[in-house]
Design a protein that fits this description.
Blueprint (H helix, E strand, L loop, with lengths): L22 H31 L17 H9 L11 E2 L3 E2 L1 H10 L17 E3 L9 E4 L2 E7 L2 E7 L3 E6 L7 E4 L2
Antiparallel strand pairs: 1-2, 3-8, 4-5, 4-8, 5-6, 6-7
Length: 181
């Protein structure tokens, strides 16, 4: 590559600082996330007991705990949360998650620890091509991640307005596809 030049009138220079959190704020956030995980586990256990003991169901939504560790099981498990809210920075499958929090929490139910960062998720597992994508694979976009469910469809925590939903895998240009199982 050669050297190039451009006029400074086409350049905007800015510095963005991420606000640091204090030790107390970090501990409070981690305690809240742990409590959400405990509540989700308790809800999954209660739903499992309820579905095995009686067929009656109220108006509240219940969720099934994962049965096996494979991609199809991941996709099926993730799909149960369609309609639940998007919450920036959230990791709760029931009370709200952002895109990476959603992927992280779905995989956590299968005993897989993943980072809560869409860019960091581009380095987990191993890469496969989009044409070889299978249910459960993680589809990475610029600043976003989703779980492939098959048939050219993803499930993801989309926006605060639409929450967790299905979309076409090509609704944006995928950067890469990562396989865990």
């Amino acid at each position: 590559m050669g050297e190039g030049y451009f006029s400074k009138e086409y350049v905007v220079m800015s510095t963005e600082f991420v606000q640091a959190e204090s030790k107390a704020e970090e501990e409070a956030r981690l305690a809240k996330e742990e409590e959400e995980r405990r509540r989700a586990d308790a809800a999954a256990t209660a739903a499992r007991k309820k579905s095995s003991s009686s067929g009656s169901s109220g108006s509240s939504k219940s969720y099934s705990a994962p049965g096996s560790s494979n991609g199809q099981a991941v996709a099926s498990y993730a799909s149960q949360f369609i309609g639940n809210p998007y919450v920036y920075g959230g990791t709760s499958l029931t009370n709200g998650a952002d895109c990476s929090g959603f992927v992280m929490s779905v995989y956590a139910a299968f005993g897989v620890g993943l980072p809560h960062s869409s860019s960091a998720l581009r380095g987990v597992g191993y890469e496969v091509s989009l044409s070889e994508a299978q249910p459960g694979d993680i589809v990475c976009y610029s600043g976003h991640v989703a779980i492939y469910v098959g048939g050219g469809t993803i499930v993801h925590a989309s926006t605060p307005e639409s929450g967790i939903k299905y979309s076409s895998v090509n609704y944006r240009s995928p950067i890469c596809v990562r396989r865990i199982f």
